[in-house]
Amino acid sequence: MIAPLDPADPAFARDPYPYYAHLRGQGPAVRVPLANGTHAWLVTGYEATRAVLADPRFSNVPPQGAGRPKGDSRDSPAQRARACLARHMLNTDAPDHTRLRRLTTAAFAPRRVDALRARIEELTAGLLREMELRLRRDGSVDLVDAFAFPLPVLVIGEVLGVPEADRADLRAWTYRVGSPADALEPGAVDEAWTGLHAYFTELIARKRRAPGSDLFSALTQDALPRDPAESGGGLDDGELLAMAFLLLFAGYETTMNLLASASLLLLTHPGELAAAHRDPARWPAVVEETLRHASPLEGTTWRHTTEEVDIGDGVVIPAGASVLAVLAAANRDPRHFPDPDAFRPGRYLAGAGDTRTAPHAAFGHGPHFCLGSRLARLEATIALPRLLAAFPGLRLTADPAQLPYRPGLLVRGPRRVPVTTAPLP
Ligand code: HEM
């Protein structure tokens, strides 16, 4: 008997792992009743997750349902903006996806990503200075608000080549679009969508006229008018717009959760924090273990079966089913991660790690494997050591077991990580 799943339940959002462990025991995929009265297939084992993500019978193209904005003149400006985002590459299958992926992979070449190192260091230092001022003034800050949220947004600003003067707008729109509507004034979320849409449209035109050295300019330079019959060609206007939205949302929410969860884990595991301070070679292992233990993308985007699929162990998923590969659950599968619920960065230490531990699946698997994994790792390995070394005696001011988490099955991370520090000199 499977209990109905309510992704909005605060207790589930905080600790979904016992529920997932129960599902994992039932088979490679389980049809779960959702609190809204519908059903979905959840995949929670490591092997089954990787198999689903590499199998073209699980399509990324969302079914055309009623209520979806069409992206035409009958929609409001905010609906049109949301419809643009819906065209992104995560919502496509081969051959469309293959073409988009080929063009974007070139823009995200390792040398381009690595060239961001100095800017990420500067941005980190700037935010730490602001945080110090706030700590002096207020005595405590929320690490999410002061650091984990703004840093990834500023870094995406670099990726998109958003001029410094426009960064405050980007930050404010992103904050509103990512916040629950009831926390804001009515209309603020729609206004933010419309603002982002207009801004990105103008940005694309500007980059086409005068490309910069940013990653996004590399995408616009390829943007030639495309003959739909051709499989080659560059990104068209709509695809570029969708790409800008995707980079913002895929890049900031995930990295924000990684930074917030890693800080929280280290503040609650002082031995691991001290070990990383003593031996900086441990930081990449801290990042990998956080990605596994507190996977920032709890589930992938939804997949839809194009035909009936026999997934093994006598489980058959019918055609047309909605399927979620739960990365957070796959990364706690005891068949691949000894003592899976423990936070033990040592298992990923280069050369000395636990060889029974599998590579985690936090960046997905198969054709849609995260395009920004190198950037996310770079950002986290720069930001975390600096953040945690900057303030003496940094400590939580709330019970970690009671912190609120973001609801839903897609992203996972604490909403707030309130901290204080020893008196600053
Ligand atoms: C796709 C995780 C950061 C850009 C994905 C997927 C995962 C993932 C699991 C595959 C989703 C699926 O199969 O449905 C993460 C995590 C991050 C992170 C955990 C940080 C900790 C970033 C950053 C960027 C980025 C910084 C870019 C700036 C993308 C893009 C895709 C993607 C463009 C779509 C790839 C495709 O459809 O081929 N990410 N991501 N991600 N990610 Fe990330």
From TrEMBL:
Keywords: Heme, Iron, Metal-binding, Monooxygenase, Oxidoreductase. It holds the Pfam family p450. The keyword Heme applies. Residues 57-80 are annotated as: Disordered. InterPro entries: Cyt_P450, Cyt_P450_B, Cyt_P450_CS, Cyt_P450_sf. Gene3D superfamilies: Cytochrome P450 (1.10.630.10). Transmembrane segments: none annotated. Belongs to the cytochrome P450 family. This is Cytochrome P450.
